[in-house]
Amino acid sequence: MMRPGAIWRELVKNLLRKPVTVLxxxxxxxxxxxxxxKPVFEPSTCIGCMMCVRDCPSEAVKIEKLAEKTFACTxxxxxxxxxGQCAESCPRKSITMTHDYExxxxxxxxxxxxKKGAPQQPK
Amino acid sequence: xxERMILPIGPQHPLLKEPTHFKFTLEGEKIxxxxxxxxxxxxxxxxxxxxxxxxxxxxxxxxxxxICSFVHSTNFAQATxxxxxxxxxxxxxxxxxxxxxxERIHSHLLWLGVAGHEIGFDTLFMLSWRDREIVQDLLxxxxxxxxxxxxxxxxxxxxxxxxxxxxxxxxxxKVLEEQTKYFADVATKETTFIGRVAGxxxxxxxxxxxxxxxxxxxxxxxxxxDVRRDLPYAAYGEIPFNVITSDRGDVLGRTIVRVGxxxxxxxxxxxxxxxxxxxxxxxxxxxxxxxxxxxxxxxxPRGEAVLYARANGTEKPDxxxxxxxxxxxxxxxxxxxxxxxxxxxxxxxxxxDPCLSCTDRTSVILxxxxxxxxxxxxxxxxxxxxxxxxxxx
Amino acid sequence: MVxxxxxxxxxxGLVFLFAYAMxxxxxxxxxxxxxxxxxxxxxxxxxxxxVKLFSKETIIPKSVDPVLFRILPxxxxxxxxxxxxxxxxxxxxxxxxxxxxxxxxxxxxxxxLVLSLSGxxxxxxxxxxxxxxxxxxxxxxxxPYFLSLLTPALMLGTWNINEISKGLPGMIVAHPIYILPVxxxxxxxxxxxxxxxxxxxxDIADAETEIVAGPFTEYSGRLFGIFRLSLDMEMIxxxxxxxxxxxxxxxxxxGALAIVSYLVKTIFVLFILAYxxxxxxxxxxxxxxxxxxxxxxxxxxxxxxxxxxLHMGGIL
Lengths: 123, 393, 316
Known about the structure:
The structure holds three protein chains of three kinds.
Chain A: H1 8-16, E1 39-41, H2 51-55, E2 61-67, E3 70-76, H3 85-89, E4 95-97, E5 112-116
Antiparallel strand pairs in A: 1-4, 2-3, 3-5
Chain B: E1 4-9, E2 21-27, E3 30-37, H1 45-49, H2 54-62, H3 69-84, H4 90-118, H5 122-143, E4 152-153, E5 156-157, H6 163-189, H7 191-197, H8 205-210, H9 215-219, H10 227-230, H11 251-274, E6 292-300, E7 303-311, E8 317-323, H12 325-337, H13 345-351, H14 356-359, H15 379-386
Antiparallel strand pairs in B: 1-2, 2-3, 4-5, 6-7, 7-8
Chain C: H1 2-9, H2 14-35, H3 45-55, H4 66-84, H5 100-107, H6 110-122, H7 125-156, H8 161-174, H9 179-196, H10 208-211, H11 221-246, H12 258-279, H13 285-312
C-alpha cells in the first residue's frame, strides 16, 4: 500500500527524543581502542634500521643518527596519514600509535614532532 | 515546444558531489540529448604507484575512493599476492569479508541518503546517514578508522578481531538490520518517493549488457552478475548468500537491489563472524616481487572493480591500472537520461552511485579551437615526466 | 493618525510581521531539524541570516535589466506587507473592507508572479527554468486555493475576512454539520499553501539539486535578502489567512488575550506545514499539476458542493 508520509513513525519518535548530534568540543565520543592517533618515538630501543622510513607511505618519518646507538626521530604530522605502518614495521616497537587525534592547529609548521635519545653513557 | 535550450550542469553544481560536466539539450523540460565530460579530477594515482614500494602503494590505492577504499586496497593486495603466489591465512580471508561487507552496508546507506537528497527527501537523507554512523563506528572499532581503514596488508590483514569487538559488531548489526528494514519499508511505501523513482531512468537488460553496466546498476536491470559468486575471492566461496536482482530496470529497481544487498551484507557479516576460523592473520611475504602480472576483480558496492598489476622484480610495481565501477556504469547513464525530464537528472545520475574522482584517469586539455592538444611520447618519456622528480621535505 | 501609523508600521503591522516571520522561520527550521533528529538552528539564526544578506555585496549580472532586477524584490515585499493589514491579529484587523478576502488572495499571488518574472529577467538557464516552473505551478495550486477560501465565504455569505473569522465559530457551534466542508477546505487550503510557499513537496521552482536556486540563482546580497524576507512573511500571511478563514481567527478570546489564541492557532498550522515538509519528497512538475487538478481541485469543489447542499437542505 502506497501512502504519503510513510516515514511518520520515525518523525514522531524523533520529536520526543534528543538529537543524536554530538556537540563536539563540549561532548566527546569514546575512542575505540583501535584508533590510531599521533605516533610517538621511544629513543632508547631504536636500533636505526630505518624500516619505518622505508615503509612510510607519505615520507613522514625521519630518523637521524646523532651518535653511536643514539637516534633522533622527526614525525612530520602534517604529512602523516596515521596508518600506523611505521609502528608495525618497527622490529623493536620503538614507534607506537597513541589515541591523541586532536592535532588541528593554524600553523602547519607546528605539526612536527622531534625527539632525540640521550647519548649513552659508556659503561 | 520545439525551441531547444542547453542546460549545463557542472563542474560545480549542487547536484554533483564531485566535479564532472553534463551538457543537456532540452526541449521544454524534456532531455533530448546529453553529453558527459569527465576528467576534472585526475590525480595521477596510477603513476604515483610506480615510484612507491608495494607496501606504500597499498595506502596509495586505498585513497582512490573515499567510500569504497577497502575495495581498492584489497584488490591491490590480491593482485600482489597473486604474483607472489602466496596463499593468505583463512582467518584473514574472513576478516576481509567482514570489513568488505561492512563497507558495503555503509556505502549503500550512504547512497540511499544521497538518493533521498537528490529528490528532495532530506529526511530520508538525514535518517539514513544517522544510522550509517553505526556502521562507521563499527568500522572504527574493527579497523581503527572510519574511512581509509588501513586494514589490509600484503599477505593478510593487519589487525585481529577481539571477542569484545565481535560483541559490539553483533549488537550494532541488530540495530542496523532493524533500521534498514524500516528504510526498505519507507522506500517501497512512500508515495512521493515512488513517484520520483518508479519508471525513471529505465535501463533495459540488453542495453545494460551492451553498455557493460556492472553492480547494482546491472542487477537492477535483471542482469544476474556478481563477482562474489561468479569468481569468489577471499572467503566468499564458503559463505552462502543471495544475489539480489530486480527486473524493473528503473531507479526503483536499483533502490530495491541496494537495500536488499544491505540486508544480505548484514547476514554475510553475521555468518562470517560465527564461522571465523582461528589461526594467524598474516602470511610472510618478501619485499621484492618477482616479475609477473596479475588481474584482480572485486565486487565493490558500486559494481565490479578491476585492478591490473605488473611487477618487474623490484620493490616497486611496473604498472598499476585500476578500473573503478563508475567508469563501466557511466556509459549507461546517457541512455537512461534520454527522454526524461530535467527533474529526473539528479536521481538518474545518482542512481549509478557515481564516484567520479575514482574514475578519472586522464585529463584532456582542449585548444582554443576545440581540438585536443596531442603530442606523441613514448613509455619511458611518459614515465620520466610523470614521476615526482624531487623528494618531499 | 499617529496611532494608525503606529499600528501599520509597528504592531500589529510591519515590525510584528517581521518579528513573527523570523520566529516562524526559526520554528519551522527547528521542527524540521528535530524531526530529522538534528539539533537545528539557534533562535537568533534567521535574523542573523537576514542581517548577513543585507550586509553582503549585491551583484547584478551584466545580462539583466538592472532596473527590473532591482525593483522586483520590493514588489513582493510590498504585496505581502500590505496583505497583512487585512488579517485579524488582534480583535479586528487594521483595515477591513468588504471583499478583502479577494484582495488578500490576489496580493498573495504577486510574490509568485514576481518570482517567475525575476527568473525571466535573470536570463540564465537555471532561472528561466525556475521561472517557467513557478508559473506552471501557480496554475495548479491557485485554483484549489481560491476555491477552498470560497467555502467559508459561501457559508457565511460574506467576502470580509474579519466577518468570516467572527462568524464561523458561532455557525459551527449552532450547526456542527458545517464542520465537514470547513475541514475539507482547510485540508485543501493547507496543501495549496504549501505549494504557494514553495515548500516540500512543491519546492519545484527552486529545487536545489536540479536548478540550483531557480529564479533566485542570480540574486545576491540585499535584493536576495528582501526576497527571502518577503517569502518568510508570506508564510505568516498565508498561515494567518488560513487561521482567520478556517479556524475562527482569534476565537474564543477577545481584547488583549486575542493575540494568544492567534499565536496558538498559527503555531498549530505552522507545525502541520513543517510536518508535511519533513515527511515527503519533492514531486515533479507534471505530478504537481496532475495532483492539483485531479485531487485538490475536485476536493475543494466538494467542499463548496457540501456547503451548497447544506444551504439547500435548509439547515440555515
